[in-house]
Amino acid sequence: CPLSLLFREGVEANDFNRFKLGRVLDRCHRYGTELLFAEISLDVCRREKVNTRFNSIDSTSFTLSGDYLAKADDDTVKITLGYSNLH
To answer: What does R_g of the chain's alpha carbons equal in angstroms?
Structure first.
C-alpha cells in the first residue's frame, strides 16, 4: 500500500477525510509552504547523504508556443525579458 511508504504503521486511507485534510492544509499555509518544503527537502537530503555544499534555486524555463520554422544555422538560446507562463 502506498500509504505505508509515507505514514507510520496503522494509518489507513479511511483515516483521511476532507475536514482533516482541510485542517492540515490550513496549518501548512500558516506555517509557510515554501519553508515547509525547504525543511522537508533538507531533511531528505541529510538522510540520503546528498551533498548540500552547493545549492541553487533555478527558476528558469524554456517555452515555445506557436508555429515556427526551424533555422538550421540558429541553434542558440535567446534570453528575453518577461514572465514564464508555466507558473
So the answer is: 21
Closest CA to 64 of 52, 45, 78: 78
**What are the residues whose beta carbons fall under 8 Å from the beta carbon of 52, sequence distance 6 or more?**
42, 45, 46
- H or E element, residue 31: helix 18-31
pLDDT tens, residue by residue, 31-52 = 999 899 989 988 998 999 988 8
Contacts of 46 (CB under 8 A, 6+ apart): 52
What are the sequence ranges of the domains in the chain?
A: 3-47
3-state SS assignment for residue 50: coil
Q: Whole-angstrom Cα distance, residue 58 to residue 38?
A: 14
Three-state DSSP class for 1?
A: coil
Q: Mean pLDDT, the chain, as a whole number?
A: 80
